Amino acid sequence: MHSGGNASSLPLVGGAPEPTINQLSKPGRRASRFPKLDVPVTEINNSAIRNDKPSLPEVSEHDLVMHYSRLAHRNFAVDVGFYPLGSCTMKYNPRFADYVAGLNTFANSHPATPSAFTQGNLEVLHELEKFLIEITGMDNATFQPPAGASGELTGLLIIKKYLEENNLTNKTDIIVPDSAHGTNPASAKMAGFNVVEVSTDVRGMVNIDDLKELVNENTAGLMLTNPNTGGLFEENIMEISNIIHENGGLVYYDGANLNAIVGVCRPGDMGFDIVHSNLHKTFATPHGGGGPGSGPVAVKAFLKEYLPGPIVEKNENNYEWYMPKLSIGRMHGYHGNFLVALRALVYMKLLGKEGLDTLGSYAVLNARYLSSVISKVIPLAYNEPCMHEFVATVKDLKKSHKIKAYDVGKALLDKGFHSPTIYFPLIIEEALMFEPTETQTVDTLDDLAETLKAIIDELQGEDVSLEEYPKNLPVGRPNELIPAKHLTVNWGDFELLELTE
Q: pTM of the entire structure?
């Protein structure tokens, strides 16, 4: 059974709008009742205590359950349909990893517990570090950064501290590709660097000639994703690394696309000095909805003492916390999101070396198959073999039929598929970025391609109103500018806004 499909595969609630929880409310109704107190009542005198009861909906238990069930059915989820979102990876997460993370001894372990009583937790981090540095080709790692962007900032602060310790304070520039994730230049700026943009050539790679012109005595380093944001492998990566190193800079690897190369090649062997990897993108933690995340940073040996601390080290038969001598300090209140790290270790052990070695290969195979089929419907942005993701563009359809990437995404939602990433990378006009990941079957990929062709054919028909899509979902096309400009935090205000106008 494949995870894509037509609209009937989505348990969405259609027809007339269902009543809101406030409209279901009737005075005196209760979803639960508590027994009478069998202890003396004690009055609490505190100015912070409100004098009146909160105005909450009064509904029966069944109405309450139905309300939240209806809301849940309106959400598109990885357990419901296919998520071809580009640049996000790991759409499905093995339940076994979640099961282990939910075990009481792990889930209820407090991070402030002395290391003598948390040897198992420390062993998890120590063993995961060994796995991670082997996968990335690094020497040491920290698990403090709670997300990818935090990992970027960590790596850049390490570069900054390294330059200061070596009296290289003249190096103030970080080079970032024009196709990079927005967090790259933002992180560089937050770390106190100047951002210098290097262009992309016609093949979708870093423009080597432009890079050579930009690099000078002020170059502190380069941030790069490989495969890059266009889904292409930077075939000149060794030359790129050498250009930066020859000018005394460091090379930073954005691990957003790591799952494309796991078990095939390593950033450390490409010349990278620092790597952040998103455990929530590549190694089995649910991704999206605001978290949880984990962006561990791994470095070559000469940068170990700059890592945020403490980090785990093994001393004879015990695991202990070690604070690097030149540490940039903490990047997290404790030691990062431990349960995310645990899920990653469980996933790695579940797959084993053979499974991890084929992880990237299947991701690339799925993407290349899907790109070959979709290219017959929508042209690709670059005519190069893609890795785990690829970018198509409807810029020609926009000119001929006023069809935008936004319209295609909305129409796909109507057919039981989540939209691909749209309008990214920013350098590609009317971009649609697809990433099937390693978990999808060929049936699902064929289903998506056929559905996409049907949508394009339908949108090119006569007397078709593009704004009609989606037609069958509870929410159509809300005006996204109004919520961005008017923060609405209570139901009364929300009712006053005409979101669809």
A: 0.87
